[in-house]
Amino acid sequence: MKVLIVFDHPYGAAASGNVPHQRSYCAALLASVMRGLAAKGHEIDLIDLHQDRFNPVMSMEELASWRQKKSEDPLVINYQQRLMAADHIIFLFPIWWESMPALTKGFLDKVFAKGIVYEEIKPGRPFKCLLPKITGVTLLTVMNTPDFVYRWIFGNPVTKILFRGTFRKMGIRKNLRWYNYTGMSDRSLEERVRYLEKTEQRFARLQ
């Protein structure tokens, strides 16, 4: 299975080591996910949005192209082609202000283009997904907000955006999974390592 990973953290994918002020638990999770996928024999395609210097801002010219079902940005075109080839998509990012960082939101705005990634069959109705191979989407998030607060008081904003407002609207309703890692900065090294090991094992079972 070909798995496309969309990774969003300013420190980049290389920041998985336990080096103060140069470390990211998101990057450590990414390394665990990739080890698990590799152990299962999956093909991994990693998009590191910060390393790619992806610009999330939609310009006037880009919006005009978007409305004509095309893109002038070679990076956006490249991302769209990689989406088309993927069987499974994994998003991995920290939660800031209860939602996704800007680069992930820009990825949805610019890459998920009408007429390329989805089609609007009828106004007000669900969209038609144009990704030919997608069988599932997994989301991994890291946040400081307690899990019960995020779920029961804030109402799971990120899953409403990414799952309900994006993929389910496109017709992908099955195999949508969310794994949330809360308060990791306050946990012991042993606890953080256990979560990483569990994550690696989980993705070694991905089908």
General description of the model:
The chain has 207 residues and is an alpha/beta fold. The chain has a single domain (2-204), classed as Rossmann fold, CATH 3.40.50. It is built from seven helices and seven strands; from the N terminus they run βαβααβαβββααβα. It has a five-stranded parallel β-sheet, sandwiched between helices. A two-stranded antiparallel sheet has the order 4-5. A hairpin with an 8-residue loop joins strand 4 (118-119) and strand 5. The mean pLDDT is 91. GO terms for molecular function: NAD(P)H dehydrogenase (quinone) activity. It comes from Paenibacillus borealis. This is NAD(P)H dehydrogenase.
Quick rundown:
Helix content is about 40%, strand content about 20%. The protein is of the alpha/beta class. Helix 1 packs parallel to helix 7 (about 190-205).
The chain-level mean pLDDT equals 91
- Could you say which overall geometry the principal axes of the C-alpha atoms support? globular
Share of helix, binned: 25-40%
| CATH-defined architecture | 3-Layer(aba) Sandwich
Tell me the number of helical segments per DSSP (H or I, 4 or more residues long).
7
- The chain-level structural class is alpha/beta
At the fold tier of CATH, the topology name is Rossmann fold
Strand order, sheet with most strands: 2-1-3-6-7
Biggest sheet overview: 5 strands, parallel
Give Rg in angstroms. 17 Å
CA(first)-CA(last) distance? 8 Å
CATH level 4 superfamily: Flavodoxin domain
Q: Tell me the total number of β-strands.
A: 7
CATH class call = Alpha Beta
Number of domains: 1
> Which residues form runs of ≥5 with pLDDT under 50?
none
Report strand %: 15-25%
Q: Spell the H/E element sequence.
A: EHEHHEHEEEHHEH
InterPro entries: Flavodoxin_fold, Flavoprotein-like_sf, NAD(P)H_dehydrogenase_qn
Keywords: Oxidoreductase
GO molecular function: NAD(P)H dehydrogenase (quinone) activity
Protein name: NAD(P)H dehydrogenase
